[in-house]
Amino acid sequence: MYEGLLKTFKEYLPITEKTPMISLAEGNTPLIPLHNLSKELGINLYGKYEGLNPTGSFKDRGMVMAVAKAVEDGAKAIICASTGNTSAAAAAYATRAGIKAYVVIPDGKIAMGKLAQAIIYGADIISIPGNFDEALKAVREIAETEAVALVNSVNPYRLEGQKTAAFEICQQLEKAPDVLAIPVGNAGNISAYWKGFKEWHEAKGTTLPRMHGFEAEGAAAIVKGAVIEQPETIATAIRIGNPASWRLAENARDESKGYIDSVTDTEILNAYKKVAAQDGVFVEPGSAASLAGVIQHVKAGKIKSGETVVCVFTGNGLKDPDTAINETTVDIHKMSDLEAMRSHLRQGVAKL
Ligand code: F0G
């Protein structure tokens, strides 16, 4: 039976005899070949579908490790700032470990599914009028004076857990990809993957990929080289103007000879719809930044034809049903009898 990341990758993680081996069977997510997009782009494209983690995002990988260490150190409560996914994972793993989660979110700027998760897992939810960056500043200060463990990705245990996705990709492909394409928000995940690829390279002799990170244009602090006070993007998950792991991300880019570039909301929405409609994978808008970036980089020649590319799909599309409904033209055919349905079907099927 698969028993989650702490057991599976024990020797690569900071685990002691005292670490509680909590698990929701996180990790072990599929690497899905994207046949139609591969053909269109002339590359071998795969999606690492992190939306199939227990709370629907990659955050479970880091949270299982951070919560286990918090409990090991005697914490009775954890706290995090979040654009939604971190708070869902924190809430679930705190419940699992029998401790309390306090989650601080930007008012009105988190996707509905994520808020629903924090509620149902039983977190204490604090909503502030500011954005994610302000929420993160607040929880960092609070964690210094109060009896709560901070579980944002400034907590190094988060990156330790998250690096396991790079291990899985190397196992699934039986090699490292040429390019790893990944959305960048607070910049923890790109840093964690790079650490993971380097460790697997050391242990197993795999090659190292180029890291291609993508910020949303309205929140592209690293690309622009300046903090963005009022970040804006449809991809609320990565609506972050002052990434905490800024330097680590630049280091991953430079060491791997990769890029951190930006993608517009239009490019994000195009990729978001494309991967669902052409290859049957529903990801959240923030996750589609990775595919939007791949499309941009293939055109720009930064990704060469025939290369093996893995897109990290960080979160499940079901997290944010409002965007799916509001950003598409939906054709819902209202019909009240079987005859109308038959004739509708016949017309449709005749065109196939
Ligand atoms: N994709 C999704 C779906 C996310 O939720 C996040 C970050 C990222 C990408 C970016 O990852 O921050 O490590 O660069 N979400 C955080 C949260 C900020 O609070 O859930 P990153």
From TrEMBL:
It catalyses: O-phospho-L-homoserine + H2O = L-threonine + phosphate. The keyword Isomerase does not apply. Transmembrane segments: none annotated. Residues 78-144 form the Rhodanese domain. InterPro entries: Rhodanese-like_dom, Ser/Thr_Dehydratase, Ser/Thr_deHydtase_PyrdxlP-BS, Thr_synthase-like, Thr_Synthase_bac/arc, TrpB-like_PALP, TrpB-like_PALP_sf. Its EC number is 4.2.3.1. CDD domains: Thr-synth_1. It comes from the Bacteria. Its cofactor is pyridoxal 5'-phosphate. One of its GO terms (biological process) is isoleucine biosynthetic process. One of its GO terms (molecular function) is threonine synthase activity. Pathway: Amino-acid biosynthesis; L-threonine biosynthesis; L-threonine from L-aspartate: step 5/5. The modification N6-(pyridoxal phosphate)lysine is found at residue 59. It is an enzyme of class 4 (lyase). Pfam families: PALP. Keywords: Amino-acid biosynthesis, Lyase, Pyridoxal phosphate, Threonine biosynthesis. Catalyzes the gamma-elimination of phosphate from L-phosphohomoserine and the beta-addition of water to produce L-threonine. PANTHER family: L-THREONINE DEHYDRATASE CATABOLIC TDCB, THREONINE DEHYDRATASE, MITOCHONDRIAL-RELATED. NCBIfam families: thrC. Belongs to the threonine synthase family. This is Threonine synthase. The lineage of its organism: Bacteria, Bacillati, Bacillota, Bacilli, Lactobacillales.
